Amino acid sequence: MKLKDRVAIVTGAGRGIGRAVALAFCREGAAVALAARTASELEAVAAQINSQAGRALAVPTDVIREESVAALVEKVLAEFKRVDILVTAAGVAAFAPLVDTKPEDWDRMMAVNVRGVFLACRAVLPAMMKERRGTIINIVSVAAKRAIPGGAAYAASKHAVLGLTQVLAEEMRPHGVRVGALSPGAVDTALWDAVPNPPDRARMLRPEDVAEAALLMASLPPGASLEDLTLLPAGGIL
Ligand SMILES: NC(=O)c1ccc[n+]([C@@H]2O[C@H](COP(=O)([O-])OP(=O)(O)OC[C@H]3O[C@@H](n4cnc5c(N)ncnc54)[C@H](OP(=O)(O)O)[C@@H]3O)[C@@H](O)[C@H]2O)c1
Q: pTM value?
C-alpha cells in the first residue's frame, strides 16, 4: 500500500475529484478526513470507505471560514495525531464571457478557490513543519495554463492558486514539506451540471484519473517532488 499509515485531509471530498482522491488514498492505506459543507455527502463517502475496512472521518467544513478550517485541523490532530497530506479539491466554477460575469460569481470563486486554499494550506503548515514532512496538493486547473474563453473569472482564481502554490513550495522547501499544483483539464463531475452547453462529457477525464495523479504526487519518495502536473484528457482541451 502506497500511503500506509499516512493521514490526509481532502477538501471537497463529498463528490467529484475530492471524493475520488479520498477513496484512492484510503484504498492505499491512508486515514482520510473528508471536508466539505454537505454533511450527507461526506457521510456517504465515509460509509463507503469504512465498509471497505478503510479509515475515514467526515468533518463538515466551510473552507472560506477561518474558524471552520481551524476546527477541521484540530479535529484531525485529535483523532489521528498527524497530518501528512492535504489535497485542496474544494472549488466552484461559473462560466460566462467577462462582459456578462456577475460580481457575485467572481466573489464566490475568489472566496472558495483562493481564500479556501490559502486557509487550508496555512492551517496544516504548523503540524507539517513540526514533523519536517508533508505533501500539499492544490487542485488547480488547465484554466491557469491556457486561455479558455468564458473562463476569465475562474482562470483568475486558478492563476492565483497556482501563484500561491509556487511561492509556498519555495517557502516550505527548507522545512521538508513539498507543495505541488495538479492542473486537470475537463473532468466529468457535477461541476458541469450547471454549465450551459458543456463539452462532451464522455471525452472528459474521470475523477479517478485525477485521483491517480494525486496519488502519484503524494506517494513519491520524500526526496522527489512533483510540483506542477497538468493532466489532460486524451483529446486535449475539449
Ligand atoms: N471538473 C472539472 O472539469 C475540473 C477541472 C479542473 C479543475 N477542477 C477543480 O477541481 C476541484 C473540484 O472540482 P469538482 O469537479 O470535483 O467539483 P464538484 O464535483 O462540484 O465538487 C466540489 C466539492 O467542493 C466542495 N465545496 C464547494 N464549496 C465549498 C466550501 N465553501 N467549503 C468546503 N467545500 C466546498 C463541494 O461540497 P459542498 O458544496 O458540499 O461544500 C464539493 O465536495 C475544483 O477546485 C475545480 O475547480 C475541476
A: 0.99
